[in-house]
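Progress against Task 2.4 (sequence-to-structure conversion) is shown through the following example record, which the project officer requested during the mid-term review.
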Amino acid sequence: MADSLKTRVGRVITGSVHALVDHLENQAPVAVMEQSLREADGVIGEVRHELGLASANRHLAQQQHANLNGQHGKLGEQIDQALAAGREDLARAAVARQLDIEAQIPVLETTLAELARQENELTGYVAALLAKQREMTEALEAFRRSRASAVPSAAAQPGGANPAQRMEAVAGAFDRVYARQTGLSGTDHSNTLDQAAKLKELDDLVRDNKIAERMAQLRAVKP
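Structure tokens generated for the chain above:
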């Protein structure tokens, strides 16, 4: 198999499905993932083509190997007959042909072994690629389902999602990017917007009290 195809096979097989998450914040994540699946399809097709060629060549080599062995055996019988008939010249010609065949057979057997190795390797590649393709397809379908379930809730509001939903979506997008880049969790989702508003009101109250205390201190020291 050509090195360029091996590189493509390796990229498809070793590429984790989670690597696709890097594209989920793009404007067309489904298109990106579908393109990856199309590339996987193309690589599978090319590897299957090479597998077919290797199998066909091995079959031809096996036939040639069998034919040469058959010729060698037949020549042995003919040599015996030629010597019995006193035709040493014919026997010599048959022996010369046997020697040629004996020189070809080891080379052919090496070729057969290499073709068998290629078949095994390519068969393994096809199996691995198909498994990866299934994994990618399942991931894409899961992504589509997650987005399909999210669309109706947003579309139900004439002006888009409510502030809480919009803030959750923004925070979710932020956290996904943050986690991918740092490996750490992003913002805290334990507080709701209502809780956040109350905490902000509490902060304001504490600040107002501090201001009042400072003003009282200033009045106390003023002559």
